[in-house]
Amino acid sequence: MPYSTLAIHQLANMTEQETHLAPDAPFTVRQAHTVMQFHVACRAKKCPRKAAALQALSDAGRVVPSTSKPR
Length: 71
Hints:
- The protein is mainly alpha-helical.
- The protein is about 45% helix and about 0% strand.
- It has a domain at about 30-65.
- The chain is globular.
């Protein structure tokens, strides 16, 4: 279900567990950026969706994951 604002989507993310599931196919860079924005409050260690987005951005050379501070 699409949401009109980031705040509403984030609220839905906190209440709907399926929004944290890993995707069936790897994210595009654009999709990964959007997921990272929507899951800003999540930790990649606990949220498979954010972890997949972080991996897609890392693979594309758009982000270098921190070795000292987990996301």
